[in-house]
Design brief:
This protein has 69 residues and is mostly helical. It is built from 4 helices and 2 strands, in the order H-H-H-E-E-H. It has one domain.
């Protein structure tokens, strides 16, 4: 479990988590998930609040790239 926390390529995301993170990455204006999903992604180190929109962290970007391969 500790390795998963430090290696974004090993992070297992549910489909809703992946879709939400991808939506943040694409700066989707109609984010269909609620605050709870944003906080979940933040707690996992995958997303963080920005000035106006949430943004994907470097770890989140690596997790997205790893899942798409």
């Amino acid at each position: 479990m500790a390795e998963t926390a430090t290696n974004p390529q090993n992070i297992v995301m549910t489909d809703p988590e992946w879709i939400a993170l991808e939506s943040i990455n694409e700066e989707t204006r109609r984010f269909i998930f609620g605050e709870a999903m944003l906080r979940l992604l933040q707690g996992r180190g995958l997303a963080e609040p920005g000035d106006e929109l949430w943004k994907v962290t470097p770890e989140g970007q690596q997790a997205l790239e790893a899942r798409s391969h």
